[in-house]
Amino acid sequence: MLSRKGRIAVLSFHSCPMGRIGGKDTGGMSIYLRELSRELQKLGFTLDIYTRLNGDKHPVLMKLYPGVRLIHLEAGPQEHLDKLQVYKYLNLFNLSLESFRREKGLHYDLIFSHYWLSGWAGLQLQKWWQIPQVIMFHTLGAMKNASCREEAEPRLRLETEKLLARRCQRVIAATKKEKEQLISLGAKPENIRAVPCGVNLELFRPLDKKKSRQKLGLEAEKIILFVGRLEPIKGLKRLLRAAKYLKGRHGLKLVIVGGDEHSLEEIRMLEKLAHSLQIRDMVSFLGLVDHEMLPYYYSAADVCAVASYYESFGLVALEALSCGTPVVATEVGILPEIIRQGETGYLLPNNCSASSLADRLAYFLDKNSRYPAAAVRETVSSFGWHDIAHQVKEVFDEMIS
Length: 401
Ligand code: UDP
Fold this sequence. Notes:
Elements: E1 6-11, H1 28-42, E2 45-52, E3 61-65, E4 68-73, H2 83-86, H3 90-104, E5 110-114, H4 115-129, E6 133-136, H5 141-147, H6 155-167, E7 170-173, H7 176-184, E8 192-194, H8 209-216, E9 222-227, H9 236-245, E10 252-257, H10 264-276, E11 283-287, H11 294-300, E12 303-306, H12 315-322, E13 327-330, H13 335-338, E14 345-348, H14 354-365, H15 373-378, H16 385-399
Parallel strand pairs: 1-2, 1-5, 2-4, 5-6, 6-7, 7-8, 9-10, 9-12, 10-11, 12-13, 13-14
Antiparallel strand pairs: 3-4
Helix pairs in contact: 1-16, 3-4, 4-6, 8-11, 9-14
Uridine-5'-diphosphate (UDP) is lined by residues 21-22, 27-29, 31, 227-229, 257-258, 288-289, 291, 294, 313-316, 319.
């Protein structure tokens, strides 16, 4: 029997890790929590993940893996709320959490919080429980504001992130760039640990391109793939404009995966743009795709496009590479650390033009310029969740004596 290392209260206040991935507010952070918690319990940790009841039909308590529970707490209306609307229910959330904890007689060794809202909740719990907090921001408001004017993050978030960067005992940075950004927010370098996010190497593997296309019913000769939440920061307008430059290419499709009923406004705007660019017939908006089905999409594609203005990490790129598919991307998140120019993809400046994006995408649409899938995959083989969990464990071990 595994001896237990420590009991951890994981906070994911605004977004339920078992929510539908690819919707407005549920993306990489939920994948991170699902995958990492599965590996951390194998290393002997017990985790209770707390989230707000948001109207999804989930039981209050779900056992995700041995030693990992997901607990839905009442805090405000049981419906999907905007991130800023949920802020005012943070106190209620903490009170519900504390009453659950007392009722069950639980004691925690560490708080592991995700996103600034959970970090804020964690500050209060830290005081009540007198234990340390490790935080992972997933995105930083100041960096988002500096990169994309269409999504202005409020002062409340910016100030809270500065406070958390200083007050939490450890901050996990997903990239070297994020580490620098955290220092500029006031985090002490000695409190920051750089641990990247991971990829499920068993799920995301190279599959036969032809068979994958047949399975998905994708009838195209060449496919550019986008996967992600449909938010302005993801640079989809720029990607559509790039597709316009490639219009003359026979049998080319731009396949867009992601977006749910909460993203309808964004989808309509993008459809309208595709119409006005006269490329509507070249673009398929597929909506949400089950995470488990994505290896077929990545394998069916000739190239995956990440045209974002900002990513804190960029799991989609890692998943595509793990399936052997090259990635053409802006210099966001982990991408500058993993892309090999001209071999596994191309990196472009954040403010790149649609025409230069089109130019790089075209390179990978050309059959002769493809690097073997196994070689592309090899470049991300150190990002398996098992290895990532070991690195996170080291951070926890420093905190739990
Ligand atoms: N995703 C998914 N289905 C979709 C769209 C996205 O499973 O329809 C997943 C995708 O595989 C990835 C995550 O959502 O794991 C997005 O993470 P990323 O870090 O790229 O972006 P974020 O959501 O954190 O901005």
